[in-house]
Amino acid sequence: MSARPAATAAATTATADPCCAAPLPVLGRDVTVPLVTGGEVTYAALDYAASAPALQRVWDDVAAYAPYYGSVHRGAGYLSQLSTDLFENSRAAVAAFLGCREDDQVVFTRSTTDSLNLLAAALPADCQVFVFETEHHASLLPWRDARVTYLDAPRTPDEAVRNLERALAARDPHGPALVCVTGASNVTGELWPVRELAAAAHAHGARIVLDAAQLAPHHPVDIAASDVDWVAFSGHKLYAPFGSGVLAGRADWLRAAEPYLAGGGASRAVARRADGGVDVEWHETAARHEAGSPNVIGAYAVASACKALTEAGFESLVARERHLIEKVRAGLAEVPEVRVLSLFGDDAPRVGVLSFVVDGWNSSHFAAALSAEYGIGVRDGLFCAHPLVRTLLGGAPDEPGECGAPEAAPGERSLNAIRVSFGAGTPDEHVERFVRAVRELVRDGARWSYRTVDGRCVPDTGADTSAATGADTSTATGAGTSPATGADTAAATAA
């Protein structure tokens, strides 16, 4: 049985000119959303860094398999056997996508966070961990039972390598050590010098795990070529939002560790002892850390996305995304009030992720206006990378700020930023609308008043914003309150 209709294969074929390649078909590309000022508009999903929309190819593959769904590994029936083959073939497809070495293991998890917590639980005793403060919390926080050295944010790729080498040279050379580093920042989108950091780690007897959550959807990831020991990523950022993630890499620490979860599937044999206790023989394969009934559909969705991106051609995807990045950067550069956040400088290579702040605006207010008045979905806050955003904004380590919208009075500086992110499914029109909206909001101000509800800035739909010119913006979570243009308040209230 082929779980993917043949008709969907052609949808992922790239055009001859990569810069002019069409976006890959994704779900939700025709969804319309209401505007607070009246009417509807096609939704511009520019929050790929949080969760990317499902590729149409992935959705079709899952829909084709769903009637054949069955429990894996332990069933004698046809559907169980078919599902087992599908599950293990998905593991092989992910291994191929990541360029795994022959003896590497691919473990299916729930997410990048789950993958890195699994690796943290598998660390040998007295392991030293080195991690930059620039990491997402998923890779910054799991190492609670290890000796952790947090490295300051570097300002160039070379400085990152030098800082790591200096820290590793000062470590106890006799114990195990692990370096955790991102491939692409979820805040700035900047690419990190993974291969050089891996070489530095290995030169000092340490291992390295790559957080590829933001890298894998945008660039090829090759474990063998980059010489990293493990890679972790999430399906929901790779156009496969079905609750699965991956930890792939060296098997020895995983094989020696206690199972991440104890239960069926992880155990090879269980027997009662004469004294009434239980003896357990655990699997040494990836199943050791996949106890319980696995997420077959999630694993298959990840494998489908891996195949779709490979078939589309990363050269084409990277070229088209670079085209979109240049459009966004050029548009924002024309607005003096906008400051794009960066560690490595304006010329640093990056994926389709940019964060910025706007003078005179609270970032939550700005993001709310983009959504309510233009139908554009971005993200505001600290992006679960609090130390990094505080560093980039020049905030004190203990200055208030959170992933959601903080309470802030009009005109008060907010320790948060706005993030726009896009990828293989983003049409040009979405980034063009975003650039135009930024320009208009900065020039004209918001056309509606906003208030904070449960920590989130939302349109004040009960306010009288007639002609919007004397609108009371005191309830907004930031400034940017130059007199707004006229609005059809009757339609807006109804919306």
Automatic annotation (TrEMBL):
Superkingdom of this protein's organism: Bacteria
InterPro entries on file: Aminotrans_V_dom (IPR000192), PyrdxlP-dep_Trfase (IPR015424), PyrdxlP-dep_Trfase_major (IPR015421), PyrdxlP-dep_Trfase_small (IPR015422)
Gene Ontology terms, MF aspect: transaminase activity
Pfam family, one: Aminotran_5
Keywords: Aminotransferase, Pyridoxal phosphate, Transferase
Residue intervals of the Aminotransferase class V domain: 46-434
Cofactor(s) essential for the protein: pyridoxal 5'-phosphate
Region of interest (Disordered), ranges: 459-495
Protein name: Aminotransferase
Originating organism: Streptomyces longispororuber
Taxonomic classification: Bacteria, Bacillati, Actinomycetota, Actinomycetes, Kitasatosporales
